[in-house]
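Appendix B, record 7
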Amino acid sequence: MPITLTQQTALITGASRGIGRGIALKLAERGIKKIAVNYKENDAAAADTARLVKEWGAVPLLIKADVGKVQDIERMFGMIKSQFGGLDIFVSNARATLATGFYAEPMDIPLQAWQATFDTQATEFLVAVRAAVPMMSKNGRIIAITYAPGGQTGSWQPWVAMGSAKAAKEALARYFAVALAQKGITVNSISPGACDDSVLSGLPSQVFQMIKEWHESGWTPMRRLGLPADIGNAVALLCSDEASFITGQLLYVDGGASLMDPVFPLAIQGIK
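Structure tokens (predicted):
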């Protein structure tokens, strides 16, 4: 039986497309009645998300705001309080765009780009959770969308700013989980693996195809890329009443990719 959620309202940042859209649609499918769709620039994509949310019977609220700016975050939550009266689910999904220059190696990344990246991740999460909690009831759910390997490894050199910022966001989620436990509000993190219809889709087609073939070859045991709906399903699971005793956890939604040992080729590991 599909999970049916008892909460009424949700906010997903960076929800105009990709993983954010997949989360918004899955929450609408599971019964959330009012969904705030945050986005930064793409009006047409945000409007399309709103249309799809409505098809599931939910009422969308489009909020154009840059989560890298504290004043925009405060304005966003002010709109939610005015329009919804409260908030049950907050999913922090938005990230800095490549245009900020964050995709640079440790010795090269400009400090301005480093700070901008942290503003959209760790600072955003701190400010947003503080704004969300006063509007939440005892069944509140807060979920951070991260990318755990980026903060645990060092091989993806140009990802240093985003990897470090995501790691800080995961740490904040654990601190908030403890701070909010007695209020009945859970705080968890989800680490997606490589996903179709995500930031990867914006890479050159040849590069994206290489990534796809790599995971289909066995480095993701399920031999496919993830889908936004896969991440949406995990969010719905953590928002369910049955997950009320799960907090402060990091959930990998990656088809088993995080289980793989990079030291040996697949054939030596017995992967055919």
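Remarks on this record: The longest strand covers residues 186-192. The domain at 9-196+227-259 is CATH 3.40.50.720 (Rossmann fold).
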